[in-house]
Design brief:
The complex is a heterodimer of chains A (about 625) and B (about 140).
Chain A lengths: L1 H26 L12 H16 L7 H5 L11 E7 L2 E8 L4 H14 L1 H4 L3 H6 L1 E12 L5 H5 L7 E7 L2 E5 L1 H6 L21 H12 L3 H6 L4 E11 L6 E4 L11 H17 L10 E3 L4 E3 L5 H18 L2 H18 L18 E2 H18 L5 H14 L9 E3 L4 E3 L7 H15 L3 H15 L16 H9 L7 H16 L26 H20 L5 H17 L12 H4 L12 E2 H14 L7
Antiparallel strand pairs in A: 1-2, 1-3, 3-6, 4-5, 4-6, 6-7, 8-9, 8-13, 10-11, 11-12
Helix pairs in contact in A: 2-4, 11-12, 11-23, 12-13, 12-14, 12-23, 13-14, 14-15, 14-16, 15-16, 16-17, 16-18, 18-19, 18-20, 19-20, 20-21, 20-23, 21-23
Chain B lengths: L1 H28 L5 H23 L2 H36 L3 H32 L1 H4 L1
Helix pairs in contact in B: 1-2, 1-4, 2-3, 3-4
The chains are: A alpha+beta (about 625), B mainly alpha (about 140).
Chain lengths: ~625, ~140
């Protein structure tokens, strides 16, 4: 009996363990012993040498002599050289030779002989960027289960390859990114928003185009699909250095105050470039196509971005930010206060059919920040009327009604919109800075009491915290009015939660995205929450300092996420996949692989940079 | 003897209820894009329902059908757990780790598989084992 139990125990543990080890070793990409194939100096030499035909310069030293031992290194797979001009792939050559030196020589010959290269004028040649990819490993993928196949490629790092029609075809990680083939599969049929993994159908089409065969031929050869990983470099904009590339971007190892200041300035300038003649913003920008979208324009996001401009003016002092903030607030005053709210003693923001709490709250925040930064009191009257509206919207329990119908003058307390109550608490605290009305102080206290107390006063509420970044920003802003342990404890808990889900440097599959907030590599972290939680963490750290109990862990969380945000920003070193790098400069994409920029991405990220600037060491 | 017969009937009712629940989940709540998965899941539900009827009828043949159904369900649970292990290993190999959420979901799925799919059939097999003398 005992022996039977022992056999059962061994089988119960041993069988799964053996299965795990077997599957893992089958599919894990084992980098070649020589990985990385090229070190930085060798990559510099290689890209400069490849670029010579573009720059019409003499060859200089022979390649192999310049490369040294690197030129003789064996290649575990193909080497690709791609030339991008304003996001368009102009030339690509794949070498399947045995050594690095041979492959580079073949690639340069291909560049020299390319008719597309001959057509480029001097300006284009200067703007064109060279990218070098060297395969380091390849591995199998599972077939037959569509969801498993879609998730068989590490996003942004793996390419897709296939043997079909007697030939090999490859889609490099860049190809998957710029064709928007990643984060595309829908694992749960009824949750359209939840997407992860490769768009296999679109990848099949791209592979078929590469091979010059029918899509059906590619599908018929699915059992010959594989994934592969590359070591990648892109030449710097001045074409002097080779910059390493990971997930389509040039990583930033560390930041200091000056680099963060530069990032903030670029972000604020990006926001200014989105400003239209009437003071509204271009809502969404798609860098791959240089296209703007303004569907479903959001007034709270407009107001939030306006707040950022005033913050940037306060920190950087450039007049252009003040002018842009004035224009954006003018838009709110002239176009966003509906006629039914113009003759009243209060002001709302929205339309005659539908005004909301969040728009009024963030407009108030933007006006107070503007007045604080510039001393200009031209919008004070509007702020006073917005303050009366916010007070009117507060409920007896400290929470707020989130809707208002100007045509009837009635509050709509039926629905709750994420963020609005926290935004209103912040607005009341900020308004008190320019309108020392005791009613505002009382209202802030009641709002924060609710948000940090009764809002979570149910069984499950003790186990989680929602997206309460506005609450903690409000708690810091309210400190001169009301300082309660409960607010600090709540925000410390929120910061601890953030810390737990923050990607740590040098650990795990998302280590290159350290500082972001995420818990699994299947869904890459989003950049907006990284910005908004950093805003909250900055506020919480400041609150802890004001209370005389500075929290070093929160400071470390802030510094890590600020590095991540700078890393994610569109900087001159990267952007070789974008149609108009000058237009995208300073922007922040939705995720590391989805570069579409909505104005609130910039708002949260740049506000975090502005408010966290002094928390980053000068060196 | 009466208690065991009552327990058999109760197991039969639970089997039928689970068969209906699995069918509802597969067809309505979380429909799969894979028709193979749907067919297999419905076949399992049918087998379970057959076992449930067998437990309620309590004829010798009915109890044999129930034993086969319960054994199949326990085997399915073991297979499901091994597939989960293989999936976790596969994703670990692809992504160099599955993260906290991935690990938590894999463990949760394994525990749910045991609780939702395997527990009742395992208890049912124990019950049928104890009744085996009545068949002889």
């Amino acid at each position: 009996m005992r022996a039977r139990g022992a056999i059962f125990a061994v089988a119960a543990i041993g069988l799964p363990a053996a299965l795990y080890a077997g599957v893992y070793s089958w599919c894990h990409l084992t980098p070649q012993p020589i990985f990385p194939i090229l070190d930085g100096p060798a990559a510099d030499v290689a890209l400069r040498w490849l670029r010579a035909p573009l720059d019409n310069v003499s060859d200089g030293a022979p390649l192999l002599a310049a490369l040294g031992a690197a030129g003789q290194l064996p290649l575990p797979g193909p080497l690709w050289v791609s030339l991008y001009l304003r996001g368009q792939l102009i030339v690509r050559h794949r070498s399947d030779t045995a050594t690095v030196g041979e492959a580079l020589a073949e690639a340069r010959r291909a560049l020299q002989e390319s008719p597309a290269l001959a057509d480029l004028d001097a300006e284009d040649r200067q703007a064109a960027r060279l990218r070098l990819d060297l395969m380091t490993a390849r591995g199998p993928v599972v077939m037959g289960v569509p969801l498993a196949l879609a998730n068989s490629f590490a996003s942004g790092r793996d390419g897709v390859g296939i043997t079909a029609a007697g030939r090999l075809a490859y889609l490099l990680p860049d190809d998957l990114i710029r064709n928007d083939l990643l984060a595309a599969a829908q694992p749960v049929a009824f949750i359209d928003e939840l997407r992860s993994g490769l768009d296999v159908e679109a990848a099949d089409q791209a592979l078929a185009a590469e091979l010059g065969c029918a899509v059906a031929d590619v599908r018929a050869e699915h059992h010959h699909l594989f994934r592969f990983r590359v070591q990648s470099f892109v030449d710097s904009p001045d074409h002097v250095r080779a910059l390493p590339v990971d997930r389509g971007r040039v990583p930033v190892a560390a930041i200091d105050r000056e680099s963060l200041r530069t990032a903030l300035e670029r972000a604020a300038d990006y926001a200014i470039r989105q400003l239209r003649w009437d003071g509204s913003f271009e809502y969404i920008y798609q860098p791959f196509r240089h296209a703007h979208l303004s569907d479903d324009y959001s007034l709270p996001r407009h107001a939030g971005t306006t707040w950022l401009l005033s913050l940037a003016y306060g920190v950087l002092g450039h007049a252009r930010y003040r002018e842009a903030a004035t224009s954006a607030i003018d838009y709110l005053a002239m176009h966003a206060v509906p006629s039914d709210c113009q003759a009243t003693d209060f002001a709302c923001v929205g339309s005659n059919d539908d005004a909301d709490l969040g728009s009024a709250a963030l407009t108030s925040v933007a006006i107070v920040e503007y007045q604080h930064a510039t001393g200009d009191q031209r919008f004070r009257g509007l702020a006073e009327r917005l303050a009366r509206f916010l007070l009117h919207m507060q409920k007896s329990n400290g929470d707020f009604c989130h809707g208002f119908v100007p045509a009837t003058g009635l509050r709509d307390c039926t629905g709750q919109v994420l963020y609005y109550s926290g935004e209103a608490a912040l607005a009341l605290a900020k308004l008190h800075q320019i309108l020392p009305d005791p009613a505002l102080a009382t209202a802030v206290e009641r709002a924060l009491d609710y948000l940090t107390g009764a809002n979570y006063d149910y069984f499950l509420g003790q186990f989680f915290i929602g997206e309460d970044h506005w609450t903690c920003i409000a708690a810091e802003a309210a400190f001169p009015i009301v300082n309660k342990d409960a607010y600090a404890r709540f925000c410390y808990a929120f910061a601890r939660f953030n810390r737990r889900v923050q990607v740590e440097p040098g650990r795990g599959p998302l280590a290159d995205l350290s500082g972001a907030f995420g818990v699994t590599p299947f869904f890459l972290p989003h950049n907006t929450p990284a910005g908004s939680r950093t805003e909250a963490n900055v506020a919480t750290y400041r609150l802890s300092v004001l209370r005389g109990e500075p929290q070093p862990d929160i400071l470390e969380t802030v510094r890590r996420s600020l590095r991540y945000l700078v890393d994610q920003q569109f900087r001159p070193e990267g952007m070789y996949l974008f149609a108009r790098p000058d237009a995208a400069l300073g922007g922040i994409g939705q995720t590391p692989l989805q570069p579409a920029v909505r104005i609130d991405y910039i708002q949260h990220v740049a506000a975090a940079m502005a408010r966290g600037l002094n928390l980053v060491p000068e060196r | 003897m009466g208690k065991r017969r009552a327990a058999s009937t109760a197991f039969g009712i639970v089997d039928l209820a689970l068969a209906v629940l699995y069918s509802f989940l597969v067809l309505r709540v979380v429909p799969s894009r894979s028709s193979t998965f749907t067919v297999v899941a419905l076949a399992v539900s049918t087998l379970l329902a057959s076992g449930g009827v067998g437990m309620i009828m309590q004829s010798r043949f009915g109890l044999v059908v129930a034993a086969v159904a319960a054994t199949s369900m326990v085997a399915a649970t073991v297979t499901l757990i091994l597939l989960l292990v293989a999936s976790a290993a596969y994703l670990h190999g692809i992504y160099d780790g599955i993260g906290q959420a991935g690990a938590a979901l894999a463990i949760l799925a394994a525990l749910l598989a045991i609780e939702v799919v395997g527990l009742v059939p395992a208890l049912q097999l124990v019950h049928l084992w104890r009744r085996r003398r009545e068949w002889r």
